[in-house]
Amino acid sequence: DQDSSVEYKRGKASECAQRIQQYAKDHPGAPVTLIGLSAGTAVTVFALEALPVSCPVENVILCGASISADYDLTRALQRVRNRMHVFTSEKDAVLAFLVPMAGTADRTNAPSAGLRGFQMPVRASAQTRNQYAKVANIHWRPEFERYGDFGGHTDALKAPFVQEYMAPLIM
């Protein structure tokens, strides 16, 4: 929930991280991909931060990210083996109009990452720059409309779009 406290979201993220660790223990070597939508993108990032470095996930997909574009992902990215794919859209009315009034999922007044993507922290260290190389901001394009993504808040989750654009990223 967008309006939930950061503490609540971190609590849910901790539960998720525990489930991921149990899954990794029960299924050694099985890949794990996390997908987050809207305020769930904050929970996804917080879950990564709650994981031990020894229990990384393969990939992360974030859609309609209502977490701040300037949120420092360095710690979270240390738990991602391959990529964090961030589907963005400046046509997302929820992120462009509602989130600025309510605040981001991590409770700031910064622009949401789902509009234009995540920004590298100012004065980033070499380690941070190396981790941010895993971030792939995928900006909305008119050709996405063919598969049902018109740039709206949840359009990237339409089955034809997932099949054409998301599934190949994690298969």
Mind explaining what this structure looks like?
The protein is 40% helix and 15% strand. It contains seven helices and four strands. The protein has helices at residues 6-26, 40-50, 74-77, 93-102, 113-116, 126-132, 159-170, and strands at residues 33-37, 57-63, 80-88, 135-139. It has a four-stranded parallel sheet with strand order 1-2-3-4, with helices on both faces. α3 links the parallel β2 and β3 (80-88).
Coarse shape: globular
Helix share, percent: 40-55%
Structural class: alpha/beta
Runs in which pLDDT lies below 50 for 5 or more consecutive residues are none
Question: If you compute it from the alpha carbons, what radius of gyration comes out, rounded to the nearest whole angstrom?
Answer: 15 Å
How would a textbook summarize the main sheet? 4 strands, parallel
Termini separation: 29 Å
Strand order of the largest sheet: 1-2-3-4
What's the SSE pattern?
HEHEHEHHHEH
Q: How many strands? A: 4
